[in-house]
Every structure is written in structure tokens, then in C-alpha cells.
Amino acid sequence: MAGSGCRKEHHNGLMTKPVMVIENDFSQMLTNPLQSGANQTLTAQTTTVNIRGANIPVLGYQPNGMLGPSFRVNKGDVVNILLQNNLSEHTNIHWHGLKVPALMDGHPDQLANAGGTFRYQFTVNQRAGLTWYHPHPHFKTGKQVFQGLAGLFIINDLEEATLNLPSGRFEIPLVIQDKRLTNQGITYNPTAEEVMSGYMGESVLVNGIYSPYTEVSTRYYRLRILNGSNARLYNLAFSNNADMIIIGNDGGLLKNPVTVKEILLAPGERLDVLVNFNGLSIGTELFLLSKEFANGGDAQGKQSFKIMKFKVTATVTDSFTVPTKLSMVDSLPASSSVRSRVFDISNPMEHHGYPMNDGMRMRHRINNKLFDSSRIDESIKSNTNEIWVFDNSKGDEPHPMHLHGVFFQVLQRTGGRGSLIVSETGWKDTVLVMPGETVQIIIPFESNLGKFVFHCHNLEHEDDGMMLQYELI
Ligand code: C2O
Ligand code: CU
Ligand code: CU
């Protein structure tokens, strides 16, 4: 490859840099996206939202605001959702974290044209958890998500119900996203450097609200957190150093709760967290933060900033105790794998323009390949377990790797952080591979036949081509 017509440049100036976050005044009340049952029309449209007193155009799945309704369904429910595309370009919906048939999965080939529709029908056949949905048309995913199209999809089941976790207004969904706000709307025009780092915004929104606050009582809350950002990682922590008790991740409940003071959350990943405001006096204000972190490349982790404010406004007595046992999760032994596949995601020369220079700039690849929907990259036998290895050992950017159609377990991480992090037990659909890291996962491929994609969930990397296809046969 190297040398074959590639222009050798020692440095083409593609140095990525952080987009510094600008906090607002935390004076706007957090609202939760409306909850909805599983029969619904989602109308992708241009709508407006009021931010800092100005009405700005955004994309939404309903009038008046970005994001779509939060679906809440029970395991076993039948889902019937009509996507009405009122955009002027094609779109579709991927149900991120839902195991649905290939033709319902929002594959980049399965599109609703401008003015058209697509009907999604499937049965929810998986354990309780927080999943989400967003567009997936190749080259446009980053733009459509950044400008407002995404939503939550919560699954409940009986196992979860027996735990009596905080619910109702004590269960708060938090969709964390950074945006670039102007009075003309949410700007999306990544430069070559911003394709390298991923597109980041200066304004951090939660549930579509810039720097919000919420009022809480002195008791346990359950926070259902999604990093719905295109590229930004958050190192979540509380300003009073409160314990974050992690009870679940992408694929639902963990076996046992784990307590941390801070935790890294990459785009696409979810966390189910209990936090106890007991013992705080009325009037106390504290913040959910993102703290600085090391080794996130040139553009990430350089700043500590506030995401939202919690204001203690009522004293209550709370009889909730954190269950010591949450769920059954059988660990898959590495020995059950019938085959391993290694994926080089390092894109080693990404800041130097060679040897993978495609015309004007380098593109993000997996195993040196760009996405091509007419090519099956990996052909996999149903009902087998496989080990996949994502190798970012020579890379200098974080890559959250996501597989459609399956959940997996993380077996091992070498280099970088050097071990699994506590939220990586149980089931995952997205795993963060930091610069220098190699991560091994084990995937039970069941019998959901067909073509699915897997990709980096930095949406600029994905749109740039960092996505391949597997077919389960
Ligand atoms: Cu949320 Cu293919 O991604
Ligand atoms: Cu997905
Ligand atoms: Cu990436």
C-alpha cells in the first residue's frame, strides 16, 4: 500500500484539538422526554427548540424539540413504529441495543426516502435495559444525530421489577449530548481535523436542555444515562464526590452493584446508576461533572466541566437498600469460542496523511477497509461463539466499537488502561478502545440471520467509512 501513488507528506496539519465546553447558568429545569408505548408514528422533521431564549431550528421525531419520545415497553411486547420521513434527505432508524431482525435494524441500505415511510415491526425478546434509537444512513448519521434525531427505548421485565429500584420521578433518564448552538441552528460542518477527532460541541445538553438543573429529595435516585454524543467521551463524577453505584450497562443489569467515584462513558454506551442524596441538607447544590482524563488523544479529556445541577429541595425518609445481587449473568469462557477475528482499528498514520491518504486526507478504516455495503466482510456461522479483537495499539484516537444484532462480553484489555473497567462486566454492545489498547470480546452469535454492520460509534469515524459488515448464516 505505502508508496503506491500516495503522496508522502510528513505533516499535513491535521492536528486535532479539544472543543472547550462552555457552561450555561444551570437555570433551566430538566424535563424528561415524553414516554410512549410501542405503537407510534415517529415523524423525522425540522422543528424548533427554545434555547437561551431563542427559537432555533433542530431535527426531531416530533414537533417542538429535538429527540424523540422515550419508549417504555415490557419484554415480550410487539413494537410497531412507523417512521414518516419529512426531511429533505433519506433517513432510517437503528434500534441500538435491540436484537431485531436484520431488515428491521436500520441497516444503511434500508432507508426511508425523503417524503417516504418505513414500518418497523418486531417483538422485544431480551432482558430489561436501556437501549436507544437513532438514524443510520451512511454519510449522514453524524449530521442527523447531531442535529437532534435520537431517543431512548427502555425495556422492563419481571426480574428487574422484583428489585424495586427507584421508579417514577425517582428514575431519571439522562441523554448527554454536546452541540454547537447558533441562532441559525445546530451547526454541522466538520473540517478534516474534526473528522479526525470527531465533531464536538461547546454546549452540553441533557435531554435536549442546555446546562439544566433538577430538584431532588434526600433519597436514592436511579439515573439511566446515555452518552448520545457524536464523539465526546465523558468522565462522569459528582461534584461532592458522591458514590455512583453502577447497577447496569448497555445490556441491562450487572450481577452485582459496583461503586465508583468516576466512570468513563463513550458515545453509544449506557449506564444505570444509583445515587443517594440522603444526608444532604435542603438547599444543597451539586453537579454531575465530566472530569479530566488521561490518554484520550489530543482532543478529549483536557477539561473538567459541569453537565447538570441537582438541587436538594425536600427531606424524605427512604427505605430503599441497594440489592447485593442484581441479576444472573453467565460468563462465557474464552474456550467456548470457535474462531477469533482480529480487527486493526489503529489507523496509525491518521495525523500524518499517509500512507492511507485518500485524495485530500486520510480516511478511518477497519483492517484497512472502508465501508462498502455490497461487500460482506465477515461471514459467521449461527449459534457459535467467537472472539473478536479490536487492536488500537498503534492508534492515537479513542474508538468506541459497536456491533449490531448481538450483545457481547468483554474478556480482556491490554495496553492503555490495561484491564476491564467495572461497567464492562455483564453484557455490552459498545466497547471503548482507547489509544494503545487492544480489547478482546466474546460474542454469542445466535440465530438472527442476515447482514449487520459493526463500526466505530464516533459518528464522524463511522460516516468516514470506519464500518464493516458481517453476515450471520
Ligand atoms: Cu448506535 Cu450502528 O449504531
Ligand atoms: Cu447499534
Ligand atoms: Cu473511531
Task: Describe this structure as you would to a colleague.
By secondary structure, the protein is mainly β. The protein contains 4 helices and 35 strands. It is globular. It starts with about 25 loop residues before the first strand and ends with a strand. The site of one copper (II) ion has 4 residues, from β7.
Q: Strand sequence of the main sheet, in spatial order?
A: 15-14-11-17-22-19-20
Low-pLDDT stretches are: 1-13, 351-358
SS summary, helix count: 4
Class per helix and strand makeup: mainly beta
The amount of beta strand, in percent, is: 35-45%
**Amount of helix:** under 10%
Overall average pLDDT: 93
List each distinct ligand once. CU-O-CU linkage, copper (II) ion
Q: How would a textbook summarize the main sheet?
A: 7 strands, mixed
Rg result: 21 Å
N- to C-terminal distance: 32 Å
How many β strands by DSSP? 35
Shape: globular
What's the gist of this structure?
The protein has 473 residues and is mainly β. The protein contains 4 helices and 35 strands.
Note the topology.
Layout: E1 28-29, E2 35-36, E3 39-51, E4 54-60, E5 70-74, E6 78-85, E7 94-96, E8 117-123, E9 129-134, H1 141-146, E10 151-156, H2 158-161, E11 171-179, E12 181-182, E13 185-186, H3 192-197, E14 203-206, E15 209-210, E16 212-217, E17 220-227, E18 234-238, E19 244-249, E20 252-260, E21 262-265, E22 270-276, E23 285-290, E24 305-314, E25 337-344, E26 357-358, E27 361-362, E28 378-380, E29 384-391, E30 399-403, E31 409-414, E32 430-433, E33 438-445, E34 450-456, H4 459-464, E35 467-472
Parallel strand pairs: 1-16, 2-5, 3-6, 5-10, 11-17, 16-24, 25-29, 28-35
Antiparallel strand pairs: 3-4, 6-8, 7-9, 9-10, 11-14, 12-13, 14-15, 17-22, 18-21, 18-23, 19-20, 19-22, 23-24, 26-27, 29-33, 30-32, 30-34, 31-33, 34-35
The structure holds CU-O-CU linkage and copper (II) ion (CU) (2 copies).
One copper (II) ion binds at residues 94, 96, 402, 404.
